[in-house]
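quick one before i forget lol
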Amino acid sequence: MFNLLFTVIMFCSPCVTGQHQRLIQGDHGLKRSRFQHGVSYANFEAYKFQHLQGSPLDSSCEVCRAKECALACSANAPCISFNVASSANENGKLRCELLSEDKFRSPNKLTVSQQFHHYSIKVIL
């Protein structure tokens, strides 16, 4: 299996307030702005043909490309990883499952899958 890394940068993000404010440092794998017009970014690493069997957040959706799922995760405060379908459905869309857990917090939930790829925040050691 090979891993793919890409960075998502958002220059305008929705304002998050109160308990939904989140700033995860860890060499800046994920940063969400606390301000309405701040900069948010995430470095996601792909784990091809793997699926994290967590409970998807209510804001899970269908997208045209995996990068759109990454943008949705970056804009959603509880999201720290996501699963995206490996192939399009009958509508030409990919299922995007936004998750509030990741392969590092729940390693026992990561399974081999022909239907999904899992993306977690890149951890720099």
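fyi The chain has one domain: 3-121.
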